[in-house]
Specification:
CATH class of the largest domain: Alpha Beta
Order of helices and strands: EEEHHEHHHEHEEEHHHEEHHEHEHH
Structural class: alpha/beta
Number of strands: 12
CATH architecture of the largest domain: 2-Layer Sandwich
CATH topology of the largest domain: Nucleotidyltransferase, domain 5
Strand content: 15-25%
Distance between the termini: 36 Å
Oligomer: single chain
Radius of gyration: 21 Å
């Protein structure tokens, strides 16, 4: 019996997941236990739950996989700050103590936290996967497809913001990437910030607000903010954004383009302008995603598509992909955000690192996503 514990933590949406001999046994986000939305802490409670579902302790776990490579992410931060010198100094000064004190030495931090649960935990069991490969693995390996194109879109992992991978049996390889600072996820988050919602939290509100508006600013966005090519690749004009080097998502040039200040959610009510802005960025997002999926469908003779990454939580855009019918079948990882990375990195160990044969099922291996705790009557009453 081989058991693999997957962990995502320290950025947002911390989670843990356990697979045993390739079967997903349990998975849960830490926020479900602490009641802290998007809890980024080490997922101690989620780990305890997953181990209890398999009736094993940490000493019996063969591998612990982490969904991210912190050194690559640190490299990206340093290179970005150097590229934007001296503009990024305030952001640099704020982030470095956190990185040098905790995030950079993540292996030591994880080992210490795991040894609090089991003093005999061996750090040699720790493995690290790349962010977008963890996303892709969570989508493809859990899907019912023998082969598929796997598209991941989010804010940013280490360097990648968009990747295309080809999955075939137990093999999964990234074949295309778009790198930071060019990011569809960060573009959407910039508008989330502009409308007055919290980044990495309020994007669903933008999607929900969009139907109440008209995409009046779509052409403005396409003309000035993003350069979209026929194959779906894109570049963002960084002169309008502040996320690469500053402490905000957008700058004055962005604000001047649309003619209204950033909404203060404590003072300003949502207006028709904000609804129209939401409709505009939603329409742009749908167009970009469709450009990518159509181009990939034409390039690869593969009828199946898998999706993961934070942008894959945009169910309206997903609906447009389904309606477009460029693929016979589509499968989207329900935990497309960073929480799902815990599942992906564990499955990467099982299939890529250990080379196990993959057997697909008619539906998927997520057990209907009912992978968290259940509560009986006595527990509910208590």
């Amino acid at each position: 019996m081989v058991s693999i514990l997957g962990i995502s933590a320290f950025y947002h949406d911390s989670a843990a997941e356990l697979i045993v001999d390739g079967e997903i046994i349990a998975a849960a986000q830490e926020e479900r236990f602490t009641r802290k939305k998007h809890d980024a802490a080490f997922p101690s409670n989620a780990i305890d739950y997953c181990l209890s579902e398999a009736d094993i302790n940490l000493s019996k776990v063969d591998y612990v996989a982490f969904y991210d490579k912190p050194f690559l992410k640190f490299e990206r931060l340093l290179e970005t700050y150097v590229a934007y010198t001296p503009r990024g100094f305030s952001s640099f000064a704020k982030s470095m103590p956190l990185w040098l004190g905790e995030k950079l030495f993540l292996k030591t931090t994880l080992t210490r936290q795991l040894q609090e649960k089991d003093p005999n935990f061996n750090e040699q069991k720790l493995l690290f996967g790349e962010h977008h490969l963890s996303h892709a693995a969570s989508a493809f390996y859990a899907s019912p497809f023998e082969n598929a194109i796997v598209l991941t879109l989010d804010g940013v992992g280490e360097w990648a913001t968009t990747t295309v991978a080809i999955g075939d049996g137990n093999k999964l390889d990234i074949v295309k990437e778009i790198h930071f600072p060019h990011s569809l996820g960060l573009l959407y988050s910039a508008f989330t910030y502009y409308i007055g919602f919290r980044v990495n939290s309020g994007e669903y509100k933008v999607m929900g607000l969009a139907p109440y508006g008209e995409p009046k600013y779509k052409n403005l966005i396409m003309k000035y903010l993003i350069d979209l090519k026929s194959d779906g690749s894109f570049r963002l004009d960084q002169s309008y954004f502040n996320y690469a080097s500053g402490l905000t998502m957008v700058n004055q040039k962005f604000i001047s383009l649309f003619g209204e200040p950033v909404r203060n959610p404590d003072i300003d009510k949502l207006s028709q302008f904000h609804m129209d802005i939401a409709a505009s960025i939603q329409a742009v997002t749908e167009d970009i995603v469709l450009s990518i999926t159509r181009s990939l469908s034409n390039e690869y003779d593969i009828p199946n598509l898998c999706l993961a990454g934070g942008v894959a939580l945009n169910c309206v855009a997903n609906g447009k992909i389904l309606k477009d019918a460029s693929y016979k079948k589509i499968w989207i990882q329900p935990a497309s955000g960073d929480a799902g990375g815990a599942l992906g990195c564990a499955m990467m160990v099982w299939y890529k690192h250990l080379g196990n044969t993959r057997k697909t099922k008619d539906f998927d291996s997520m057990k209907g996503s009912y992978l968290g705790p259940s509560y009986e009557q006595k527990e509910i009453e208590k």
